[in-house]
Specification:
Elements (H helix, E strand, L loop, with lengths): L5 E13 L3 E15 L3 E18 L2 E19 L4 E12 L4 E14 L9 E16 L9 E17 L2 E12 L6 E14 L2 E3 L1
Length: 203
Amino acid sequence: DKWNLWRFNINGNINGNGQEYSNALFYNSNFSANRTSEKNRFESGFFQFGNTQKYKINDSTIVSNANGFGAYCFDAISIGKKFAIGYFSTYFSSTVQNLVNSTSFYPTIEYNFFPYEEATRRQLRLNYRIGARYVDFYSLTYLNKLNDWYYLHSLVLSYKQVEKWGSFKCDIGTFQYFSKDNFYRINISPNVSWNIARGLNWN
């Protein structure tokens, strides 16, 4: 493997619409760099998104801008055939969500139902994370705060199968804040990737 097990992905799209009294432009892009081996699993990425909308009302033009960007990093070292320990960290900023800065760090422990020596072909991982998130806000929240700390934990089940035709991946995860028992969320993220040519795939 001339790439030494590294896998890089770059995606992006842009679209827009317009009429006599309004127009809009939307865009998003992302980049990831991942490497999985018998002894280590490393995942990192960067993403951004935004939109600009304009409206004409009488003789006035109203412009609305919204954007955000973020990055993440996961690194785990195997301890035995099926366990691994490491960390997961994120950074996020969004005008829509009133976030100047959202930075988090979570120590993590992971169990892979398949031996890590098979990690380049198939994975079924159960990952538990516990840590903290620090947030700065653009404007005061309903709790009259411009910054805050949150403590939370999460559980993520991930499946990935790699074949000659491409790969299938699905993540099912949930997280909960310790200070708010009724504040939790569940995410499901399936993805299928077909190999079109060497170094080129379609999702």
